[in-house]
Amino acid sequence: MGNVIIVGGGASGLMAAVFAARQLEKVTVLEHKDKIGKKILATGNGKCNYTNLDQGPKMYRGNDSSFAMKVLPLFHVNHTIDLFKELGIYPKEKNGYLYPNSEQASSVVEVLKLELNRLKVKICCEVDVEGIKKDKSGFLIITNKGEYTADTVILSAGGCASPNLGSDGSGYGLAEKLGHRIIKPLPALVQLKSDAKYFKTLAGVRTKVFIRLFIEDNFAAEEQGELLLAAYGVSGIPIMQLSSYATRALDQKKKVHLLIDFLPEVTKEELVEMLYKRVGRNPSVTAEEALIGLFNNKLAYVGLKQAGIDPLELCALVGKNKLYHLAEQFKEWKVVISGPGTFDQAQVTAGGVDTAEINDRTLESKLVKGLYFTGEIIDIDGTCGGYNLQWAWTTGAVAGMNCGIMK
After folding, report:
1. pTM of the entire structure?
2. What per-residue string of b and e applies to 377-404 under the rule 16 or more CB within 10 Å gives b?
3. What is the Cα–Cα distance from 281 to 311, expressed in whole angstroms?
4. Distance CA 371, CA 177 (A)
5. Could you give phi then psi for residue 214, rounded to 5 degrees?
6. Per-residue pLDDT reduced to its tens digit, 179-227
7. Is the dihedral of CA 187, 188, 191, 193 positive or negative?
8. Which residues contact 152 (CB under 8 A, 6 or more apart)?
């Protein structure tokens, strides 16, 4: 009987354990936190958006994002849904996003635990893996609680994002010592910072917007949705979606800026006309008062200042030229990005083990026979919406299915 050690008890490691153990393999999971599945519990604001019906290449990024499209069909979204139904999770769909019907992330962790117990998988928590050595007889895993031997090792140690939940980046060092190239890990699905001082005034404002991202003044990507303005800069789902591009560019010392449209449902010309009517209706009110009901009060105040208009200036004194600049400000509000948030704030890691060194049919290392990689440790990251968990389920299942095959 093969002996499989899985390093990491997160989503991909637990899925790998299920599929390895279903082949009658002797399976042990080594987890360095006190419990398995901690990061799963934090997903979807505790409701666990565990996958998404809308799958495609635009949802996955990496140095070679095509790698994801080769792997995902091997255990795709329908396989995921069927497996979790088998384990007890009845899906609830919201615009393609799938949650457990219980809307509790703990349900996903619990059904995985029950299946692992049924399959007699050994789970060892608070075990720090300090090194992995390979020789002709197999693997030697050195930990703070003694040594383990294995015929096969599945490295599911996660990335660097949310280190308090277990992803401390230690897996990269283990992979590197076994000869693998690591694409520099960077925070992704993370807030973006700006040095503009007016963000302290705008902190707490939420509004629907359309955003374009530019790198070295060249258009790179666009998103729409609810923007959250904070003292440090910008956040919200559209920012998270754009952050992977921004973070990589900033790491390369490239200039990054956003153009934010705060009223995407109207054209610039239509906004100019709206503003002209507002100031003309009551010339005796201030410019700031004329914007009541159109924009958040904080946003209106800062927008006027940025457009060179005194918020207390009477409407009678605001000419059409100034209104054109004001419309331009709200339709193409430029935000220069100074940096990303930290790994503590990031939901996932961009970068990781170079996919060129991983077999895209089995997830076995091309360099070390019997070594497999799953989940976030691989240089693939997904957008918001259940994609990183789908990547975890897919890679865990593929590695688990293949690690027991006699070669």
Report:
1. 0.92
2. bbbbbbbbbbbbbbbbbbbbbbbbbbbb
3. 17
4. 13
5. -125, 135
6. 999 999 999 999 999 999 999 999 999 999 999 999 999 999 999 999 9
7. positive
8. 2, 3, 4, 5, 25, 138, 139, 370, 371, 372, 403, 404
